[in-house]
Design a protein that fits this description.
- The complex is a heterodimer of chains A (445) and B (435).
- Chain A is an alpha+beta fold and 445 residues long.
- Helices cover 41% and strands 20% of the residues of chain A.
- In chain A, a hairpin with a 5-residue loop joins strand 2 and strand 3.
- In chain A, helix 3 runs parallel beside helix 8.
- With 435 residues, chain B is of the alpha+beta class.
- Chain B is 40% helix and 19% strand.
- In chain B, the strands form two sheets. In chain B, strands 1-2-6-3-5-4 form a six-stranded mixed beta sheet, sandwiched between helices. Chain B has a five-stranded mixed beta sheet with strand order 7-11-8-10-9, with helices on both faces.
- The chains are: A alpha+beta (445), B alpha+beta (435).
- Chains A and B meet through helix 2, strand 7, strand 8, helix 4 and helix 10 of A and helix 2, strand 5, helix 4, helix 10 and helix 12 of B.
Chain lengths: 445, 435
């Protein structure tokens, strides 16, 4: 998918509405490609005293070199741990936290497989302060050795906690089975113990310099603020930094049918992950598969899976499925937490429901429910500043266009039972699923 | 700032309506005054189980209908059981394209299941394994195991000593009759508060509530909770040794209940120690990196995370601390650093700028908590449950009145050795298992 500037000059303005439904009250969204290359999306809302800020840039795990697993995530964590700015001056990690927290604002910066991202919240009057601090963090992180040491300790502890979590281990193994080892989707963005121990200051500085660029950076703002001042600010971010846009990393996931136990005998409960390759967000089958998955393992109390495995069989507290349709590829995973004695029955229940979705069309009322859920939930998703800022960023990230909300109801309403059946047949073959079971199980289950 | 219309139906149901027309969305919550606080030994976890059963069918709604009908409208819903209360909510679009009042579905659901839940024996049986699975899932987490032990140490007499999920032996033995009895005792209009926040006309909303709830009969007031935790005469300690990967430290200090005047000093003390918190559903995230505990424990590389919280509740509860320790750090070392940080606040009041920051953070969190009707409705219900929704409007003013000396006094009074219970989770290697 291309994230390039679609060639629009000056702000593109859209009012948010969705055919037939009033989704939110009188909101205008502007989208601009700023001089520095940043794509800025803004919507003002004077009824709320706060502002939500979201941003993303292409400095994710995909840009790490061999053996550098976890570098992108480590670098992102370091951005708030001290800056040395030629104009704005230097601030220690403590001073940055003090400055942001003194006004009751908060922000966090992290990196995933595809991108680095930030999320901030503040009262309207403090936005300029927050944007200045963020600018310092993005433009001139100092990467002090003492902070690298602290951060490494935190990351290693987080890794040890993940090692002890049945749910995390099942999911990580499922991803490792779906994607080739060289692709970032195959591994956790946090890295491994060995790779994190090997990360040094030089690698962090180099990674940041090469990958933190305004070209390809997306910023969204929602809430009570002055658009002109915010625009001027963001337009000055990372000025003069140039570099090639990050490459795309398309990949085709695949898996062999398997059933793999991860014995963790000291745990009370087993976590299951049943995984299959799916599709990227841009794929034409996305909407049909998404609705099929909604019916299978999400709608209401975890869809058909919840109805069978939890409600009828009483086998699990949670059982659901999710479609992760990402930038370069996607996967489908069903998860459940079950008593070790019930593993086989729970897996069987999930497989039966997958099969049923492929054998017969969903009922009329299931399709109607799913469609009205997707359309009816829009006002709820867009009600808060956070929800709105996140939505705008997402629309831009996946290149959906500012008119997405107007087109969306048409797309969803045009789906037929046959479309869902075809998507389930194409993607949800129970015979192909890779099954991972982490918990109090033996080597053979 | 908080503009609520209060009324009470003849059957005793308290109704709080807050119109907010920013978005075409309405959040409806019903709060029952029942939680693990109202349980007794042998029936632990029964309040939470009853909550589950309210999704399993009534005379009008089949099992699964609550989630299904709310999802169909594009809404979301859930329910929670705490030590003091059980609450249910539905956040829905105000209306749909045809002009129907979609949000009133919430009233249909709640009026029905307040009295008509079926507690079908087969459903009770199926739900028993679901709840046991929920408990097992918690047991997979070392911090749950530690908090369960610590709760049992910090409280000897009061039901706050057991976790809301309940003990496994009770979850295996509680009967359908036990559950139904609990439901009939506590699910009454006179033991409930209904909160509606969002895009409604208050008069019309009131009429819609009356049309569904007026017919419900009041029932005898539920029994009072008589348990009182006796004073603690010295430090209590527990150690959990289990296979795991990271050592954890949790500490709980006995504090008074939420109606005590020291509550506001304790809230600011907590903010000075680990940042201001939201009193609502939504909030502004973690603001503790510049606060005392982070500096004393994380910056010094003893812990990788530290948090604190004041548990404001109907009966005296605890001020609790939770730390994940860095590899190689002995729990006694981290514990000593924690206690010396607390002791310093007991000796010397926080600086003016620390007080200003704690207050500013609390104000900002309060504002973030007003973003969205779900969060607004939660806050109104929560404050009402603790005594009076009007205290939400007075919350910031009361925090502003706290002096640095009052914060010091709160630390000196409550964060003492005599009032504390200390818990260590010591990870053992996975292969020295376990019985």
């Amino acid at each position: 998918m291309d994230f390039g500037d679609p060639g629009i000059e000056g702000p593109e303005v859209s009012s948010i509405r969705s055919s037939g439904h009033q989704v939110i009250r009188s909101s205008i969204v502007t989208r601009e490609v700023l001089d520095n290359g940043v794509v800025l999306l803004m919507t003002e809302n004077r009824e709320s005293p706060s502002v939500a800020v979201r941003a993303s840039w292409r400095a994710g795990g995909a840009e790490e070199g061999p053996g550098q697993s976890g570098l992108a995530s480590f670098a992102a964590r370091m951005l708030r741990r001290g800056v040395a700015h030629p104009q704005a001056g230097s601030r220690s990690a403590e001073e940055i936290s003090e400055a942001i927290e003194s006004v009751g604002a908060s922000f966090s910066i992290w990196a995933g497989s595809e991108e680095a991202a930030l999320s901030a919240k503040c009262l309207g009057g403090d936005l300029e302060l927050v944007l200045s601090l963020l600018q310092g963090c993005l433009e001139a992180p100092a990467f002090p050795q003492v902070e690298i040491h602290r951060t490494r300790g935190q990351v290693l502890t987080a890794l040890r906690e993940m090692e002890d979590s049945t749910r995390t281990k099942a999911d990580l193994r499922a991803h490792a089975l779906l994607y080739p080892p060289e692709h970032p989707y195959s591994r956790p963005s946090i890295g491994t113990r060995e790779s994190v121990e090997a990360i040094d200051r030089e690698a962090l500085v180099a990674f940041h310099e090469v990958h933190c660029l305004p070209a390809g950076m997306l910023v969204s703002l929602a809430g009570d603020f002055q658009a002109d001042a915010a625009r001027r600010h963001v337009e000055s971010w990372l000025r003069g930094r140039s570099g090639a846009r990050a490459p795309e990393h398309p990949v085709t996931p695949s898996c062999m049918p398997t059933r793999e136990p991860i014995p963790m005998p000291h745990k009370s409960q087993a976590d299951l992950a049943l995984a299959l390759p799916a599709l990227p967000r841009s794929h034409p089958d996305y909407y049909a598969l998404n609705v099929a998955n909604l019916i299978l393992g999400s709608l209401g109390l975890m869809g058909r899976l919840g109805e069978r495995v939890r409600d009828q069989q009483g086998l699990a507290y949670y059982v659901y499925s999710r479609l992760s349709a990402r930038l370069w590829a996607g996967d489908w995973i069903a998860n459940a937490g079950v008593d070790p004695d019930n593993i086989d029955r729970a897996i069987e229940g999930i497989l039966v429901e997958m099969g049923r979705l492929r054998e017969e069309p969903v009922s009329d009322h299931e399709l109607e429910d799913a469609v009205s859920n997707l359309l009816g939930s829009l006002p709820l998703r867009l009600e808060t500043n956070d929800g709105m800022a996140g939505f705008l960023l997402n629309v831009e990230y996946y290149g959906l266009g500012l008119d997405h909300l107007e087109r969306y109801p048409g797309i969803i309403r045009s789906l037929t039972k046959e479309d869902l059946l075809a998507a389930a047949r194409r993607y949800l073959d129970p015979k192909q699923a890779a099954i991972v079971i982490a918990g109090p199980v033996g080597d053979r289950t | 700032m908080v503009d609520v219309l209060e009324s009470r139906l003849e059957n005793g149901l308290t109704l709080l309506i807050q119109p907010s027309h920013r978005a075409p969305v309405v959040s409806t919550w019903i709060w029952y005054r029942v939680g693990s606080r109202n349980e007794r030994s042998g029936l632990t976890g029964i309040s939470h189980w009853v909550e589950h059963m309210l999704f399993k069918g009534t005379e009008q709604l089949a099992k699964g209908d609550v989630f299904r009908s709310v999802a169909r409208q594009g809404g979301h819903n859930n329910a929670f059981t705490s030590e003091d209360f059980t609450c249910y909510f539905e956040t829905l679009p105000a209306g749909d394209a045809s002009g129907a009042e979609s949000w009133q579905l919430a009233l249909e659901i709640e009026a029905d299941r307040m009295v008509n839940a079926r507690f079908d024996p087969d459903e009770v049986k199926a739900e028993r394994t679901v709840i046991l699975a929920e408990r097992q899932g918690s047991e997979n987490s070392p911090s749950f195991l530690l908090s369960e032990e610590l709760g049992a140490a910090a409280f000897r007499v009061h039901p706050y000593r057991w976790p809301v999920i309940g003990y496994a032996c009770d979850l295996r033995s509680i009967s359908r009759e036990d559950l139904y009895q609990h439901y009939r005792t506590y699910y009454t209009p006179n033991n409930a508060v209904l909160v509606i926040a969002g895009d409604v006309d208050p008069e019309a909303a009131f009429a819609a509530v009356r049309a569904r709830f007026d017919r419900l009969e009041p029932r005898p007031a539920p029994p009072r909770v008589t348990a009182e935790e006796p004073p603690q005469w010295g430090e209590r300690r527990v150690v959990v040794r289990r296979p795991g990967s990271v050592p954890y430290l949790q500490v709980a200090f006995q504090i008074p209940n939420a109606s005590h005047p020291d509550l506001y000093s304790l809230i600011l003390l907590d903010a000075v120690l680990s940042g201001g918190k939201s009193v609502s559903w939504a909030g502004g995230g973690y603001m503790g990196r510049s606060a005392r505990l982070y500096r004393a424990l994380v910056e010094t590389e003893l812990a990788t995370s530290v948090s604190s919280s004041v548990r404001a509740s109907l009966d005296p509860n605890v001020f609790s601390f939770s730390l994940s320790l860095r590899e190689g750090v002995a729990p006694e070392t981290a514990e000593a650093a924690l206690f010396s940080t607390l002791a310093r606040l007991a000796e010397e009041p926080p600086r003016e700028e620390e007080m200003a920051k704690a207050l500013r953070q609390s104000e900002a969190q309060f504002a973030y908590g007003r973003d969205g009707v779900t969060s607004q409705a939660f806050a109104i219900g929560y404050f009402q449950h603790l005594g009076d929704w009007r205290n939400l409007g007075r919350h910031l003013q009361r925090l502003r009145a706290v002096t640095p000396e009052a914060v010091r006094r709160a630390a000196a009074t409550y964060l003492t050795e005599q009032r504390r219970s200390v818990g260590w989770f010591i990870p053992t290697a996975a292969d020295d298992l376990m019985t």
